[in-house]
Amino acid sequence: MNDQGIKSRPAYAPLARDPVGRTHLLVADSMAIPHAAFAPGTSLGDYDECWTVEGHSRAIPSAMPDARMHGFRSASHLLIALRRRLAMEYMGFRLYAIGTEAFLWDVAAAAEAAGMGKEEYALFHAGSGARRVLCVHCRTLNQGVTTNLVACGGCGAALFVRDHFSRRLNAYMGVQVDAEMPGERPDVEEIYR
Amino acid sequence: MIRHDPLAVRVAAIEPLSATLKRLTLESADGGALPIGSAGAHVSLILEGGDRPFRNAYSLVSMPGERGCYELIVRRTAGSRGGSAFIHERLGEGSVIGATVPHNLFPIQRHARKHLLIGGGIGITPLLSYLPALRQGGERLELHQISARDEVPLFENLLAPHAAHDVHVHAGRGALDLSALLARQPLGTHVYVCGPAALMDHVEAAAAALGWPASRVHRENFGAAGGDPFTLRLARSGREIAVGPDQSMLDALEAAGVPVPSLCRGGACGECLTKVTGGVPEHRDHYLTDLEKAEGALVMPCVSRAKNDLLVLDL
Amino acid sequence: MSIAFKTDEIFRDGFRYANSDAAILRFPFPFVEDSYMYSVNIEPHVRGGPTPAFDAVLDIDEHYIGECRERALVLAQDPNRCMVLPHMMAAQWDTLELIMESLAADYPDHFQLGKDGDRWTWRNRLLNIEDSFVFGAPETLPFEPFEYITRQMQGDFTLQDQRDGNLYMDGGMVTSQADWSLEFDLGMTFHEWHGPVPLAHDLGVFDRALQYLLRLQYGRPVRRLNWTMTVNPRLDTSPENYPLWGPDRTTVTPENVGDKLHLRVELQTLYRLPRSNAILFSVRAYLASMNELARVPKWGRRLHRVLRDIDPALEDYKGLGRYRRMAIEHLAQFDDGAPTGKGIAPEVDVLPA
């Protein structure tokens, strides 16, 4: 992936259970969790619970009180349960997330809203590299962007996708590429897959 | 807005709270408004007694934002021949003393979902200023004060205005199960502790063992400005300049008429970089690399000091 | 010192803007020597400096009325240029207090603040504002306190919350910025919001600046100068409105560069706020054209040399690419090769006619 040299773009490292935490919950937006998500010598079995997205409408979290694995219909479905869980948790809790960037920062927003800090949650990017791009001119959120340039769904501007990332908005910044000289644009390349 | 230390303050009232505790009320000596003190802030009093001034830091217990006066509580430490004895024995109403502008190294964390306050003995003082500020903001709080058995009524009295809240006084450390208290705190809690070093260390260690991140544990800290006095020798002229305990090397050089180029005066910009030809610097800057600091051949005189009595500069 | 306030300035299409001789002589020219590179150029914000722009805590000048009017226009078209996160209410009142007290003290003919306990009365004679309110009670003001008072200021402001050993940009009034977005950057850490700045990260500038600012003390504000260039005297060079001002960059010609191209200098001041422990960052922007600045002989020479020798990465970041050559060729006439004195002072009391 190309690097525009911008330092706000998140970097991710493989996950490892924090040895000082007391309760460890892992959430993922897919059932296919790659081995690369875990630091060498560690695995899914290290976590007290694992919540995944199954992606079908009959999925439902286990009703068993001590179940370790829970499946959800969608990322939205999982996030609803996660917010409720965080509201009832205690200090010493640790949260881990694996998935697309948009999912990771939705999880991080839920954690921050519950008062958690950066030392209490960890994220690992897996799956699609497509980006959410906020048009800085009209504020439309363009989903699933895989190219360096994208036509804004709101105002039609040809946006260049900058590496500048807002964790609060969970989006990269899109800026009109040819505002100075209409039509003066680089070639379109698919680089965020 | 640009305030110059020290402020001249007049002792408006002295109220004995117990045999060893006095509450001081200080007003601006010129009758004007004082710089603003916030919850957790402290001032250093500068007391001219004997051959050198005492400089003692005290937390403000006045209402946060109060500009008419500063209130603080001073415990006379056993065997003290320093500032606390001076305050208890020699300071009277009407005395004028020096005070620094309030400085806050123990601020309220506005992001916290809940504030857990733990005081030990006279360490309750900064937490007394927290209570009205947290209540005004409608924040969730819980306070535990650990006290010697004979002082329980005293602290219950000081906390009486807040008795309707989750506020508890315990007779002795054994009366409070700190680990159980920390273990049952909801996600998003911050703990603030002020008291004897052993208590603060204990809370820190117990919280860490229960998985609290360090950024959620706050202990009172008056900062480490200044230090032991030492002497500077200027290699080119052989001249010697004394650096006082509350003075930076840069201040001492300037006061002695030795100009050193400077800009930020906070150890960041690198402008006052000076070569060292003898002695060992105690580095406090953010400019030199770790390697440069270890080599000891360069120093930033705006913030750094000396590890021994003499430092020789290439000036 | 009396200021002749201008009342008819326009900072957008239909531009109407010029600096008086007094305004040129007080300009905070940013180049202390004949070349430029990033540094931690922070110093204590003490009263007085190389030009009168450093005389007040918060400087106002002859452009005050026009700049406040321009701010109101920007906010009417885009209310999100002023945003403050909810945990920053104490910092909002800190800001209002700092600004009202310093304006009333530094410019008593124009601003007055009366206090009767928590009942305050604020008079701004330049904008014909008089309001009584209760300090600490937001519902007694027509806007939240931060927006209320920064609508009456030249320059942008941001609020930084300090926590976890970092600074977070958790509020701001940003209508006259050099191409960065408050709405996008809101909530970011110090290194994140400086992410797009080239070179300085690798120089360690931001690590040192952050450590310094974390230790900033109440009562000891600090300042620095920053700069960029703007085509036309336009204040709102925001990313939001880049489609509106971007085309300006193609309108520079060798004939008009001296009047059209402006040096935009930010006098940045930083204050530790006492109640909230937050940091207020004031970014006061000054605009002057190449030809206005070249009336000070030292500045004409120096500007030519700085632009001629600038690092290519900075040229790109500051958006100089399309017109730097034209500016250098135009400024060459003011550079006779004579040496320039150190520091930024104009070294003349009166401008040549």
Automatic annotation (TrEMBL), chain A:
Residues 59-119 form the Dimethylamine monooxygenase subunit DmmA-like N-terminal domain. Keywords: 2Fe-2S, Flavoprotein, Iron, Iron-sulfur, Metal-binding, Oxidoreductase. InterPro entries: DmmA-like_C, DmmA-like_N. The keyword Transmembrane does not apply. Residues 132-175 form the Dimethylamine monooxygenase subunit DmmA-like C-terminal domain. Pfam families: DmmA-like_C, DmmA-like_N. It comes from the Bacteria. The keyword Cell wall biogenesis/degradation does not apply. GO terms for molecular function: 2 iron, 2 sulfur cluster binding; metal ion binding; oxidoreductase activity. This is Uncharacterized protein. It comes from Sphingomonas oleivorans. The lineage of its organism: Bacteria, Pseudomonadati, Pseudomonadota, Alphaproteobacteria, Sphingomonadales.
TrEMBL record, chain B:
The keyword Transmembrane does not apply. The keyword Disulfide bond does not apply. GO terms for molecular function: 2 iron, 2 sulfur cluster binding; metal ion binding; oxidoreductase activity. PROSITE patterns: 2FE2S_FER_2, FAD_FR. Residues 4-109 form the FAD-binding FR-type domain. Keywords: 2Fe-2S, Flavoprotein, Iron, Iron-sulfur, Metal-binding, Oxidoreductase. It comes from the Bacteria. Residues 230-315 form the 2Fe-2S ferredoxin-type domain. PANTHER family: CARNITINE MONOOXYGENASE REDUCTASE SUBUNIT (PTHR47354:SF1), NADH OXIDOREDUCTASE HCR (PTHR47354). This is Oxidoreductase. It comes from Sphingomonas oleivorans.
TrEMBL record, chain C:
InterPro entries: HODM_asu-like (IPR021848). It comes from the Bacteria. Pfam families: HODM_asu-like (PF11927). This is DUF3445 domain-containing protein. It comes from Sphingomonas oleivorans.
